């Protein structure tokens, strides 16, 4: 099959995009968690297990 070889510049750009996307996803996950805790209230931690 045809294999495309990326230049170092393209590899670095791809890695930078992947890192940026990972950071954005992590921030969104934390943001959803914080918003959920705020909406439910801090009393969620006081319930019996």
Automatic annotation (TrEMBL):
<feature type="transmembrane region" description="Helical">
    <location>
        <begin position="21"/>
        <end position="45"/>
    </location>
</feature>
<keyword id="KW-0812">Transmembrane</keyword>
<keyword id="KW-0472">Membrane</keyword>
<protein>
    <recommendedName>
        <fullName>Protoheme IX farnesyltransferase</fullName>
    </recommendedName>
</protein>
<keyword id="KW-1133">Transmembrane helix</keyword>
